[in-house]
Write a structure and sequence with these properties.
Low-confidence stretches: none
CATH topology of the largest domain: Pyrimidine Nucleoside Phosphorylase, Chain A, domain 2
Strand content: 5-15%
Number of domains: 2
CATH class of the largest domain: Alpha Beta
Number of helices: 18
Shape: globular
Structural class: alpha/beta
Distance between the termini: 60 Å
CATH architecture of the largest domain: 3-Layer(aba) Sandwich
Oligomer: single chain
């Protein structure tokens, strides 16, 4: 009886957003306020994911606007637990992105995050399990015993403060976001509906850790400007959003990368080649994923300085872009040179060791080292 009453209460709450949902289904853009209420109420009251499915299909078919994505962000922010690390936001960044690229490679932004940490910055790494590729960022961390589903808010805070990097999925330590995690999991993981959605576009934009800088890859050039406009609304000092024309939400060492740079309220768009970034142009097969196990092996080889070829260059250019955003550098190429020097020293691997000692498994790390040695 209690369950029925609860369901009736949820349904009654959802009925208040029907006019907004109907407006969206008819192909109309929402205001920030409408989008915030729609996402908030779906996250809280839609226990069966029916409203979420309609919302996702309608908004993505129409094309998300910066105001709508801002509403998504504000809805999460109103429900999320905030981290209390006392870290200087001038020294914090995240290199996460949308995922969902048509070209599948190694976990570039995750590896690049360790390089940026080795450079002395803090990376609050939004992470989730694979949806469209063999390994998501969370799968890489889990391979070393660091599972986002089992990390408490305190553990995340301590790792960010003492190690300089930690994977984060705010829904796992935010009670008010528990239903959002449940219904998104029902669609993407339980039902295996592998489609792009506003979740891909903006879930990783949100962070419970304050920061002033972002590097954010997107699976389509279509949304680069929209995301840059979102970063302006969020008050970021500087950000890069990018899409590689081979179909990858990263800076690429194959072909051209389209970049939208946001600095304050100013936005500019440009294109970069591997030569512009200071690396040799690679062949597609040289950076293509070899599957889940190979991705983890490549990850360790790159961080330990044992891999110095195209895959290492791919990581270097993405880490270099973050160093450019964070530092007083005139070009991304300068950041790439710095990232290359860090990679060959193995300092990035030292960060991985430190993280596994605090939150993960030294035995798991040893196992992957043994696989590399074979």
């Amino acid at each position: 009886m209690i369950k029925i009453k609860s369901m009736d209460k949820n349904l009654k709450s959802l009925q208040t957003i029907t006019p907004i949902l109907a407006k969206l289904v008819d192909g109309n853009d929402l205001t920030i306020e409408e989008a915030t209420k729609l996402f908030h109420d779906v996250f809280v009251y839609d226990t069966e994911a029916y409203h979420l499915a309609v919302l996702m299909g309608a908004i993505h078919a129409k094309g998300e606007t910066a105001d709508e994505l801002f509403g998504f962000y504000k809805a999460i922010d109103s429900l999320a637990e905030k981290l209390d690390t006392k870290l200087n936001p001038e020294r914090v960044i995240d290199l996460s992105g949308t995922g969902g690229g048509s070209f599948k490679s190694i976990n570039v932004s995750t590896a690049a995050s360790f390089v940026v940490t080795a450079a002395g910055y803090t990376v609050a790494k939004e992470a989730f399990y694979a949806v469209t590729g063999p390994t998501g960022s969370a799968d890489i961390f889990a391979a070393f015993g660091v599972d986002i589903a089992n990390l408490s808010k305190k553990q995340v805070e301590e790792a960010l403060t003492e190690v300089g990097i930690c994977p984060i999925f705010v829904a796992y330590f935010s009670a008010k976001l528990a239903n959002r995690a449940k219904i998104s999991g029902k669609i993407f993981r339980e039902r295996q509906i592998h489609v792009r959605s506003p979740f891909h576009l903006v879930s990783n934009v949100y962070s419970p850790q304050p920061m002033n800088y972002r590097v954010y890859g997107c699976y389509s050039e279509r949304y680069l400007q929209t995301l840059a406009e979102l970063f302006v609304k969020l008050g970021f000092k500087k950000s890069l959003t990018m899409y590689a024309e081979i179909g990858m939400p990263e800076f690429s060492n194959v072909g051209k990368t389209v970049v939208v740079e946001q600095s304050g309220k100013n936005i500019k768009k440009y294109t970069l080649t591997p030569k512009d970034l200071g690396v040799k142009e690679a062949e597609l097969d040289e950076i293509r994923t070899g599957g889940k196990e190979q991705n983890i092996i490549d990850f360790v080889r790159i961080l330990s300085g044992k891999e110095t070829g195209p895959k290492a260059d791919l990581v270097a250019i993405n880490a270099g872009a973050a160093l450019y955003v964070l530092g007083n550098l005139s070009t991304i190429k300068e950041g790439v040179e710095r990232a290359k020097k860090i990679l060959v020293t193995g300092k990035s691997y030292t960060v991985l060791e430190k993280l596994t000692r605090r939150l993960g498994s030294q035995d798991a790390l040893k196992m992957w080292l043994e696989k590399i040695a074979k």
